[in-house]
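DM from R.C. (forwarded with permission)

"hey, sorry to bug you on a friday — could you get me a structure for this? deadline for the figure draft is monday and I only need the backbone to look sensible"
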Amino acid sequence: MNKIIEEAYDKAKEVLKTCVRPSGFYASGLPGGYEATWARDSMITSLGAGLLGKEFKEPIKKSLELLSRNQSLLGQIPNCVGSYNNDRKSDVTFNSIDSSLWYAIGFINYALNFADKDFYSHHRKNLSLAIIWLSYQDPDEVRLLAQQPTMDWQDAFPHKYGYTINSHALYYAVLKMVGKDRQAEHMKRVINGQTSKYMSLYDNKLGYYYPWAWKNHDGDREHEEWFDSLGNCLAIITGLATPTIAKNILKQIDQKKINRPYPLKAIWPVIKPGDKEWHSYFSKCDAREPYHYLNGGIWPFIGGFYVVALIKMKQFKKAEAELAKLAKANLQLIDYPKFPQYMYEISKSRHIPIDKLMAMRHKEFNECLDGRNGKPTGEPYQAWSAGSFVYACECLKQKKVIYFDY
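My reply, with the result:
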């Protein structure tokens, strides 16, 4: 691998170390960041961290144990455990479907990767309950997952509900991992439009999956057509997408330059006030500005999955080229034109001089980047940005998609 990839790989391991806490992985490793354990963040982080020998075995295990202890009576895995949300009454928050999906994937990968039979034996009931809870998210009794709006990692933007490609790509992986091949293959045929086309998500004309779709009203179906980068990439990686669909998806990414200036924009095209996809509450969230945050901003953790999708399709030279661009993106240092007000509160409560705090946060591996110029925004030292980068590097080294080869 070239020099910049190696440099970013070493830095990613350093970032991972800063995100380790006694309870498991925090979503980011610096004061004032996301100082709590999110199910999806910690499990995505573990994809890469789990391939670095036994160095991160304990924080992966601790994250899983923390999530297991706080599982709901019905089997739902928490979205987040920790006191990050000061406006919430509880330190344990739910209301997300992908938390249970990522937990199941992370659980199985950990148990197999580290051959931890004691962990599996002690927590297998938690895994079973999470999968049962998922199976009940099926109001139409069609063996698909239906979700409420803002119920996954895109928790404020865009507005999607019903059947989503992100959740079904993950669900396909879970079903394959637990040996439910028949159900997985049935779901694959439905989502890809080979049967029960009224419920499918793949659109031949678009060349990619709808981000979401729901009921069909005499030919007028509830759905939207923006490109969901994470969902489409995961569909390739997990095997939900057929080889033909996978090639079409990657073609769309190139044609629409969704991987420029760095991989990968969260959605495309951006959504603006006046567009049919716009909702009034968008103006209150961080994605209200086009090319910022979830609204066409670049998310390096998705970039890692994009590289792995290229590896899945054996496009190794392109994967290495895109990985080098991702390395460059991740190694950028964030600059704050105006230090956020809450950082002054952190400075006061933690007794850290503001100048020192600013210097501490002048770091790499940021949460997201501006979709036009690629400059860092969001939180630095982000665990899943580092974890997915390591995961992509390891997949490229082995020239295969690790974990999802079933």
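R.C.: lifesaver. Residues 36-136 form one domain.
me: no worries. The mean pLDDT is 95.
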